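Today's session is about reading a structure prediction critically. Students often jump straight to the picture, but the first step is always the sequence itself: look for stretches that repeat, for charged clusters, for runs of hydrophobic residues. Only then move on to the predicted structure, which in these notes is written as discrete structure tokens rather than atom positions. Here is the chain we will use throughout the hour.
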Amino acid sequence: MTGCWLCVHSLVTAMAVGMVGMAAARGQDPVLVSITGPLVGRVGERASFEVELVNRSGKPLQQLRVIDYFDKGFHHEASASPIEQKGTIDLMPGTARRLTLDFLLDEPGRQCHRVEILDQSHVFVGGATHCVEVQPAVAAAPRYAAPAPVAAPTPAPVAAPMPVAAPVPVAVPVPVAAPAAIAAVAVPPLAATPSVAVAPTPVPMPSATTTITVPASPALELDLQGPAEALSDAVVEYVAVVKNKGAGTAPPTTLEFAWDEHLTPLEASDGYNLVASKVSWNLPALEPGGQLKRQINLRAKAPAGAYRDSPATRSCVRAVLGGFGGGAMVADEACAMISSTMPRPRIRTPSEVGLKMSLADLDDPVRPGDSTTLVCTVTNGGTEPTGRLDLIVILPDQARLDSERTAARLRIDDSRVSFDPIQPIAPGGQRSFEITYRLPTGGTGRASAILSSAELDGTVERSCQTTFLE
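Below is the predicted structure for this chain, in token form.
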């Protein structure tokens, strides 16, 4: 192999690679391998082979390894079998690469060598075998020497030899790799007779030209086109363009669209099949240089609760071109940022919706050892029902609740008392809440009530001061 092959000589590696190659050969190999070289040769001659690799997988192949296994009748200057090309090969779809391999023919008989291609994962992706019928070498012809004269008193008369007919010429086909010249064969002299040189019979050689037709391979390309931005409720169009940039006709394939949850399908190109959130087409065969288009229209919808000033929501459409052999596919994706057109509503204050609250004590002053009851009244003076309301009462320090006179359900955290959420109050309606407490040491106690709502901007606050006698 000329200038680009590095020797490897490992029986374990050869057996492992051979097993992978036999398993992968059941389908069409991604790489088509063809070997051109002589079919017949003689021992001692040099045979040259051209190896061509063609990527017919429809996708780029990188870091391919090229390994050659050969019989013992072949001799390579670098090493015994196997030998591996130095470095790796990258092949784009539909492209080819040629390498040259040289051997010296050592033994007669049928001698074969096999080229195997492995990918970067050491998986067999293509291979080919070429054999040569090696004939024995022709012995060099000895020079004819005249015999020494035989002393005899009276030499007997010798009959004139019969004339030898000229050999019939035989047409010899011209081989691709020209073998070495064949030496003429001489017949040794006959005893006591004049010698006659006999012309050698030409040996016909079969043609060694192997013609291999490399099938043209298709190369499909998928391009999904669509808008990068969209407003909520707008119709967005996505178009998939399928092109065959290879030299062969692409077989029938399938095209499938899928989309995210914020897109709703409206219509699609004729011949579609809609299942759940996917639509697909069966595409016909595509000639070299041809292209097909399929379109789908969807409605964009911003998420619930999104407003004009909210961040845009990213939604994507994916196109997948499948139906190739071996589960291969080509995919593309296009995404749009969907913005809401809904203005954010202005949050009103409690006074704007007519929400009022009062806080009063029933006993003031409070005799020693007695308690007072706080009454908190919430009134809806507006024209619409209120939302859910939250009420919190903050008692004075050292205050003690009178559980027997406090009927409402409460959550107590030190001096902070929280009522259960207040359900909406109809226009003109009101709700009252009571809490009873006392101060053990006497003095002045100040209690506060805070009314709030998640739908309102701000709170309503009231306070009440009570005197506890010593």
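Discussion point for the tutorial: Residues 5-135 form a domain with the Immunoglobulin-like fold (CATH 2.60.40.10).
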